[in-house]
Design brief:
With 44 residues, the chain is mostly helical. The protein contains two helices and no strands. The model has no long low-confidence stretch (mean pLDDT 84).
Length: 44
């Protein structure tokens, strides 16, 4: 496998996310994630 150089961590994470076929979060995904974090951390 070739060695890639990335300028930033964001660029690196975007590259690997694209390899896995992950897309950007939808508004529903963000809301569900926020609810999960609130229920775990009890930050109401």
């Amino acid at each position: 496998m070739e060695e890639r150089k990335f300028k930033t961590r964001g660029e690196q994470s975007d590259y690997y996310a694209n390899l896995r076929g992950w897309g950007p979060l939808t508004d529903e995904d963000k809301a569900a994630l926020d609810d999960a974090v609130r229920s775990i951390t009890h930050l109401d």
